[in-house]
Amino acid sequence: MQQGLPRPLHLFAVRASDSHNGNHAGLLHKLGLSDAECEAAVVASNVPEAPPIPPKPASLVGTPVVPSLPLNRRPRHNRRMPVLREAFQETTISPANFVYPIFIHEGEEDTPTGAMPGCYRLRWRHELVQESSTGNEAYNDNGLVPRSIRLLKDKFPDLDMYDNLSQKIEDVMTAKAIPFPLDGEYTSFLNTG
């Protein structure tokens, strides 16, 4: 810096009471100045420069570089209309947003599910479903799943239902000719409302 030009001002504040009892002595000694030298520099408007900011640590290899957006306006100005405000508002979740799983089986007793504490496989008091290698029961109008859906829709007409027939993938591919990955199972989603 040239002589006679004012030095750039940096924020450097020391309370006199702290400087005399030694609480900030470490900071002043890092700059290499004594208390008296710092006070004299402040009075003469010759404030010492702040220590350099340490460099930002490098990101991990493979981390994509995301440049900052060149925004002419702050994003909140895009929220003048109620429709846009609703689109940008925080997400709120209520009990109406959750799906409650109900498992129904043809047995005579309710059995707990091991993976979901508090959920049970509920009994259905009829004859056992005959399993087949082709998954015919899934398409039986009088089968367990269609009967359960009809019963629930009679009691709760506004209910949206999602059923998982748990068919083997080979059964689905032969019945519907849908190309699924070999490690999955077919899940049909019904909005019967």
UniProtKB/TrEMBL annotation:
<dbReference type="GO" id="GO:0004655">
    <property type="term" value="F:porphobilinogen synthase activity"/>
</dbReference>
<dbReference type="GO" id="GO:0006782">
    <property type="term" value="P:protoporphyrinogen IX biosynthetic process"/>
</dbReference>
<keyword id="KW-0149">Chlorophyll biosynthesis</keyword>
<keyword id="KW-0350">Heme biosynthesis</keyword>
<comment type="pathway">
    <text>Porphyrin-containing compound metabolism; protoporphyrin-IX biosynthesis; coproporphyrinogen-III from 5-aminolevulinate: step 1/4.</text>
</comment>
<protein>
    <recommendedName>
        <fullName>porphobilinogen synthase</fullName>
        <ecNumber>4.2.1.24</ecNumber>
    </recommendedName>
</protein>
<dbReference type="InterPro" id="IPR013785">
    <property type="entry name" value="Aldolase_TIM"/>
</dbReference>
<comment type="function">
    <text>Catalyzes an early step in the biosynthesis of tetrapyrroles. Binds two molecules of 5-aminolevulinate per subunit, each at a distinct site, and catalyzes their condensation to form porphobilinogen.</text>
</comment>
<keyword id="KW-0627">Porphyrin biosynthesis</keyword>
<dbReference type="GO" id="GO:0005829">
    <property type="term" value="C:cytosol"/>
</dbReference>
<keyword id="KW-0021">Allosteric enzyme</keyword>
<dbReference type="GO" id="GO:0008270">
    <property type="term" value="F:zinc ion binding"/>
</dbReference>
<dbReference type="InterPro" id="IPR001731">
    <property type="entry name" value="ALAD"/>
</dbReference>
<dbReference type="Pfam" id="PF00490">
    <property type="entry name" value="ALAD"/>
</dbReference>
<dbReference type="GO" id="GO:0015995">
    <property type="term" value="P:chlorophyll biosynthetic process"/>
</dbReference>
<keyword id="KW-0456">Lyase</keyword>
<comment type="similarity">
    <text>Belongs to the ALAD family.</text>
</comment>
